[in-house]
Amino acid sequence: MIPSAGHSTSSVSAVASPSMPSATMQTSGHMNGDDRPFQGAVLTPMRWWVIMGSLSVVALLLATVCLQLGTQYIGLGNLLGVLSSALFDQPSDDTMLNTTSVILLQVRLPRVFLGFLIGVCLASVGVALQALLRNPLADPYVLGVSSGAALGVALAVLFGIGTTMLAFSLLPVCGFLGGLVALLVVYRMAASYDRLPIHSVLLAGVILNAIFSALIMFITSIMEPNRSFGMMAWLMGSLTAPAYPALAALSVYLLFGLVLLFKQVRVLNVLALGEEPARSLGVDTERAKRVIFLVSALLTGAVVSVSGMIGFIGMIIPHAVRLVIGADHRLLLPASALVGGMFLMVADTIARTFFVPSEVPVGIMTALAGGPFFVYLLVWRKDRLG
After folding, report:
1. Can you spell out the DSSP letters for 145-213?
2. Can you tell me the distance from the alpha carbon of 364 to that of 111, in angstroms, rounded to the nearest whole number?
């Protein structure tokens, strides 16, 4: 949602209840360890449109570059020619263009789009979980949600769901159930405190990851060798070009979850201050938490069922974007979504082009980028982690 014009600078008015029609959140508010808000730039309609428009243009340019790069470089002229021919259904007699068309339309385009969509989902879920738990290190991967979703998918594959006609529709559901179990465990721990200490969150994530990873390894070890190898490659996080019908169905599934999450932007602003302030502002916190948890599990389960475990995007991107534009979720959530999509597009392009003829799983690339950033946050910015 776009902010209305005004000049309120109060941190309370910045997170006014969504039930208040005149809510004019003009200040970014992010709580530090002393419960004082970090004041960000005033959020106006012009600022929202400038930032989102700029990010959209950058995303389009990066997507164009990613489509050009690969084992066979595709020039911009050929790229535009193939896309226009496909768009206007103009067949070409040029053998070279036909080969380029197959590479571009059947391999790179669906893969780049899939990477962007998954990056958008992971970053969006990271923003929501960080606001809900009031912890900037909350992330589906760190909290064990991705491992829980992976366990749900692994169990489904073990019992043959992955080889049935309903595989595409049921695997995301199995991932959703596994991710939801992990989220509920973390939430039950957080519900015992006003604010769960950061080290307790990390410890809970480590424990869940260890348990779920052990169960996944056990399942993998009793599979047939071919299926076991495929499972291991999937667990490292990988993007493969899906068929367009499957990609369309997945897009509808994920976009539905994203719409539900984006409708919570004002509620996320309030929840970032804590449950008591949220209740005092008239927010039904229990309902909001249920919606956010369910949607987060829905998106994480679907993403993991398709791409495996791609970590740290939900932690790196929201934190980096928050440092630049502030903590107002009406801007933070859509901006983080776009940056997350761009990040995964670029990471996957690097993974499939820099080590030709080998291809590195994109999950390894994101872990190499996210690991050092995680240490930086934990050690050198612990004053901000409270």
Report:
1. HHHHHHHHHHHHHHTTGGGSTTHHHHHHHHHHHHHHHHHHHHHHHHTTSSS--HHHHHHHHHHHHHHHH
2. 17
CATH of the domain at 372: 1.10.3470.10
Confidence class for position 145, pLDDT limits 50, 70, 90? confident
Among 290, 271, 123, 140, smallest CA distance to 195 is for: 271
Spatial separation of the C-alpha atoms in residues 45 and 75, rounded to whole Å: 38
- Domain-located, residue 210: yes
Per-residue pLDDT, averaged over 239-245, amounts to 83
What pLDDT does 128 receive? 92
Q: Is position 381 within any domain?
A: yes
Domain count, the chain: 1
Write down the mean pLDDT value for the chain. Answer: 79
Q: Has residue 244 been placed in a domain?
A: yes
Does residue 43 sit in helix, strand or coil? Answer: coil
* Number of neighbouring beta carbons within 10 Å of residue 43: 25
| Domain residue limits at 234 | 122-338+362-385
